[in-house]
Write a structure and sequence with these properties.
Layout (H helix, E strand, L loop, with lengths): L1 H17 L1 H53 L4 H14 L3 E10 L2 E7 L13 H6 L7 E7 L2 E11 L5 E9 L1 H79 L5 H32 L7 E4 H18 L2 E6 L6 E4 L1 H17 L4 E9 L3 E8 L6 H4 L23 H11 L3 E7 L3 E9 L1
Parallel strand pairs: 7-9
Antiparallel strand pairs: 1-2, 1-5, 3-4, 4-5, 6-8, 9-10, 10-12, 11-12
Helix pairs in contact: 1-2, 2-5, 5-6, 6-10, 7-8, 8-10
């Protein structure tokens, strides 16, 4: 068990070393809740202090006002009683209110909120006597009863002729504290909601860190793959070219035996096929890495089509296929990349020759107001509807007995689609099984 725990701790610290952002996120996740709680407690303390100060000021003012009333109407208990009732009606938090006079018999209650106490003697005199030591300020004594907070406040008054009076009030903070507690509870709910949002954002941030790390890893893998592909394809092209050259020399040497020359032809054909695959892989690597440059310029598209047909004419004639074009346009100039368009047409016509056993292939050009349409038509084996949807996917090849003996990498049409997209055009296919195929390339003028 300890061994597993030790391994887990080591893996965790290794993860932290690789992902320093995780440590920052974890620190924020711990710091932000603490900061919220600490700030909330500080605000709560300030609010309580302000509330106590306001309540003390309120009691002091109340005693000042009522003290003047006592000194003015000390011989009129009815007036004092009416004053108490008026003040309590405006301050419902006051639970007890008494005006007491010091007499030889004791502390006589002249007026009180509880009228039953009027005329009786105050039984507890210690706090009254203690307040007589301070004649200008109200003395406040807080206490708790039944979970509620109360303040008992005393003010000592002396007349000119030496008589001593006391004002006693008791204030309940039950309603105030209840309201305060409700607000605090609401604040904590909001704090909890905020913390949940912070936790969620931290989780999302950690996920983004993981995604960023995975992205870096995938970019490194892609760069390594592209470097490996470029290196392998470049290294393979040189020996393949040499093999083709030696095979061609053997094939053309009349002094070599016939069967040897036939084998040399097969070697040359295999080397050609392998070289085409290598070239396709190299083109894919360049496309995926974004290193393929597009150079737009005025291009005579009619001359370009004739050039491609002339270069592939021998290949078509070897299979007995008629390769032609239908060019009747007077103006054939468009703004495009001549090299990439040549590559597109070569791929399409080569593909038609490969999948056409006999018949004809025709390239039709149609120039419109804003676009040009190039249609490569063949009378080959055609493509089924479900296969047409995947024709431009990488490494896709139609699975049927008709094409099982035809070699290819399955990258030609995907490369063509990528090149057409780079030129700002569209490519589509129209085909009927056993009738033929039309590949339509549309390019902006």
């Amino acid at each position: 068990m300890l061994n597993k725990l030790s391994i887990s701790i080591k893996l965790f610290f290794r993860y932290l070393i690789k992902h320093p952002q995780f440590l920052l996120t974890l620190s924020l996740l711990l710091f932000i809740p603490f900061a919220f709680l600490y700030t909330g407690q500080q605000f709560l303390k300030v609010a309580n202090d302000n509330q106590d100060r306001l309540e003390k000021n309120k009691i002091g003012v109340l005693h000042d006002v009522f003290g003047e009333l006592v000194l003015t109407h000390r011989n009129n208990p009815e007036e004092l009683q009416q004053g108490i009732e008026n003040i309590v009606s405006l301050n419902p938090d006051i639970t007890k209110f008494r005006v007491v006079k010091s007499t030889p018999e004791g502390l006589n209650i002249l007026a009180a909120l509880d009228t039953k106490l009027v005329g009786s003697l105050e039984s507890k005199t210690d706090l009254y006597n203690f307040s007589s030591l301070e004649s200008t300020e109200s003395l406040i004594f807080p206490y708790h009863k039944d979970g509620a907070r109360y303040w008992q406040s005393f003010r000592s008054l002396k007349t000119i002729d030496g008589e001593q009076y006391f004002i006693f009030t008791e204030t309940s903070f039950a309603q105030t504290d209840k309201l305060f507690a409700t607000k605090i509870t609401q604040a904590y709910y909001w704090l909890l909601a905020t913390l949940l949002v912070v936790v969620y954002l931290a989780y999302r941030h950690l996920r983004l860190i993981d995604y960023g790390y995975l992205y870096q890893e995938s970019q490194l893998a892609i760069n390594t793959r592209d470097l490996f592909t470029n290196m392998v394809t470049h290294e393979m092209r040189a020996p393949l070219t040499a093999i083709r050259g030696y095979a061609s020399m053997i094939h053309e040497d009349k002094e070599v035996k016939f069967d040897v020359r036939e084998q040399a032809v097969k070697i040359e054909q295999s080397a050609n096929r392998l070289l085409l695959i290598v070239n396709d892989l190299l083109e894919v690597a360049r496309l995926q890495s974004g290193k393929l440059k597009i150079e737009m310029k005025e291009t005579d598209i009619c001359a370009l089509i004739r050039n491609v047909i002339d270069s592939l004419g021998d290949t078509a004639r070897e299979k007995g296929i008629t390769l032609s074009h239908d060019l009747h346009e007077l103006i054939c100039s468009i703004n495009t990349d001549e090299k990439r368009l040549h590559q597109i047409l070569t791929n399409l016509i080569n593909n038609s020759i490969k999948y056409t056993e006999a018949g004809s292939i025709s390239v039709v050009l149609k120039i419109m107001a804003k676009e040009v349409e190039i249609r490569v038509k063949d009378t080959g084996m055609g493509i089924q509807a479900e296969d047409q949807k995947r024709l431009f996917a990488p490494f896709f090849r139609v699975e049927s007995e008709d094409v099982s003996k035809i070699s290819g990498s399955g990258l030609g049409m995907w490369i063509t689609k990528q090149l057409v997209d780079l030129l700002g055009g569209k490519v589509a296919v129209e085909s009927i099984k056993d009738v033929g195929t039309n590949v339509v390339v549309t390019l902006p003028k």
